[in-house]
């Protein structure tokens, strides 16, 4: 239905000349600027469609729900070019990564459908214990509020939305602030594939549209990938937190540990992609490097040169890794972290580190970074690389144990006798240990989660179906 209220402009941080010849952020389009009452009507639509578990969607046969999802993904695939283009313009993601985000999302939907079929086959089995038969199934939870982040506005929004939907929940989702337009080419696919009220979209600022929805107490699941501050603020609005299920992918400060016997060529390449793919704007990015003192000098020199050789440009230009940052305040924030680290004893060890333009700052590589520097303490979520050296492995291990985060670590070394006990320790500090490779979320069939403040619940194809449902069973006696 055509929106009849106000619209908000959406700008790209990529600068161009406008019609008047003025050079600046490019106006890409407009989206509805909803107010509280429009957001509440959207929630009402989701509640009506769920209808206390009696609605057409939560009671629909598995095969029919799958047919809706298949119809959606078929239509989605026809809009690849538009969505990829918007990914580049809205968030500055380079062409190969934008294409990968789209294709990965399509694959995620197909894998989810397959996993859901398997779940349904499993639920056809009966268990029997102590003379009681149990027919165990999984049922939906209710109304889900989904909010994805700007760094994966398609993929991570859908990593919440798709499993929530297929399990029979109804959904209100808020597109990410940057990456909001790329939902538009998919609206018709949503409308024609799912029954009315099953998928609902809210646009606008979180505190205007999402907070009032939470305040009603009618949201059963808060599914958010983003920062802890937003997650906590939204949870706090809910009048009965015990009834609210959380599916949260939050912040991280994933370290790399480079041992003295590491293959430095490999470690450097993995640390380049780990720290700087999509300009370090990934929760899984490597955000601090610990390098053993025996190899730190050589590592730093080669790493810094390698960073300086990276190409900055517009996302569609070939070979470009560093691209404009979508958040207007980000270059200044990164500079503030850099200046603070330098004031506390670090040096910028690469020649180009800190070169700044209106929408970018060239990644500063900082060494040695003090632990009281903001670059060490904050999740930079951008192009800045703090390096620390260590003598004893206890140093990074203690830091990880004290950290508020616990998502992943990368470990570089070659001697299995050293690595094996270390891995046993590391898996109790984080949820994924990447051996001689950078941190990452995929392949999406593996569990994606974290300890401490990094996550609540688990995402991935397999686990997300469980995160968005509850186990139920019908018991009957053997008589
Ligand atoms: O921002 C966090 C994302 O889940 C990172 O995913 O490792 O596939 O880039 P990725």
Automatic annotation (TrEMBL):
Alphabetical list of PANTHER family matching this protein: SUCCINATE-SEMIALDEHYDE DEHYDROGENASE, MITOCHONDRIAL
InterPro entries per record: Ald_DH/histidinol_DH, Ald_DH_C, Ald_DH_CS_CYS, Ald_DH_N, Aldehyde_DH_dom, Aldehyde_DH_Superfamily
The family this protein is said to belong to: Belongs to the aldehyde dehydrogenase family.
Protein name: Glyceraldehyde-3-phosphate dehydrogenase (NADP+)
Domain of life: Bacteria
Pfam families: Aldedh (PF00171)
Keywords: Oxidoreductase
GO molecular function: oxidoreductase activity, acting on the aldehyde or oxo group of donors, NAD or NADP as acceptor
Organism ancestry: Bacteria, Pseudomonadati, Bacteroidota, Flavobacteriia, Flavobacteriales
Domain Aldehyde dehydrogenase: 28-469
């Amino acid at each position: 239905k055509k929106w009849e209220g106000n619209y908000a402009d959406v700008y790209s941080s990529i600068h161009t000349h406008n019609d008047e010849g003025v050079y600046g952020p490019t106006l890409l389009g407009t989206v509805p600027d909803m107010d509280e009452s429009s957001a509440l009507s959207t929630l009402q639509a989701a509640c009506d469609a769920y209808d206390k578990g009696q609605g057409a969607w939560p009671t629909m046969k598995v095969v029919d729900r799958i047919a809706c999802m298949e119809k959606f993904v078929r239509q989605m695939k026809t809009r690849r070019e538009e969505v990829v283009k918007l990914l580049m313009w809205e968030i500055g993601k380079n062409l190969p990564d934008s294409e990968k985000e789209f294709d990965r999302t399509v694959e995620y939907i197909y894998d989810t459908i397959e996993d859901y079929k398997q779940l349904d086959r499993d639920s056809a089995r009966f268990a029997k214990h102590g003379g009681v038969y149990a027919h165990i199934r999984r049922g939906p939870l209710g109304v889900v509020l989904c909010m994805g982040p700007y760094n994966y506005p398609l993929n991570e929004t859908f990593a919440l939305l798709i499993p929530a939907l297929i399990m029979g929940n109804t959904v209100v989702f808020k597109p990410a602030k940057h990456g909001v337009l790329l939902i538009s080419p998919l609206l018709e696919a949503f409308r024609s594939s799912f029954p009315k009220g099953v998928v609902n979209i809210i646009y606008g600022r979180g505190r205007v549209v999402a907070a009032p929805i939470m305040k009603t107490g009618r949201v059963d699941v808060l599914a958010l990938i983003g920062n802890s501050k937003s997650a906590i603020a939204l949870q706090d609005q809910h009048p009965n937190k015990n009834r609210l299920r959380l599916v949260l992918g939050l912040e991280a400060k994933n370290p790399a540990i480079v041992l003295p016997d590491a293959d430095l060529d490999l470690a450097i390449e993995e640390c380049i992609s780990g720290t700087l793919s999509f300009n370090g704007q990934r929760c899984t990015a490597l955000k601090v490097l610990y390098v053993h003192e025996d190899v730190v000098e050589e590592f730093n020199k080669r790493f810094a040169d390698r960073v300086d050789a990276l190409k900055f440009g517009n996302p569609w230009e070939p070979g470009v890794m560093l691209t404009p940052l979508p958040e207007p305040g980000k270059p200044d924030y990164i500079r503030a972290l850099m200046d603070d680290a330098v004031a506390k004893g670090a040096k910028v060890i690469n020649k180009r580190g800190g070169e700044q333009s209106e929408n970018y700052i060239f990644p500063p590589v900082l060494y040695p970074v003090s632990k009281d520097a903001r670059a060490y303490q904050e999740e930079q979520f951008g192009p800045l690389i703090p390096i620390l050296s260590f003598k004893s492995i206890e140093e990074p291990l203690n830091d990880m144990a004290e950290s508020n985060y616990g998502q992943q670590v990368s470990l570089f070394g070659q001697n299995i006798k050293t690595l094996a006990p270390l891995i046993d320790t590391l898996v109790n500090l984080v949820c994924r240990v990447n051996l001689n490779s950078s941190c990452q979320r995929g392949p999406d069939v593996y569990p994606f989660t974290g300890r401490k403040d990094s996550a609540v619940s688990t995402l991935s194809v397999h686990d997300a179906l469980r995160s968005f449902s509850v186990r139920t069973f019908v018991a009957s006696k053997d008589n």
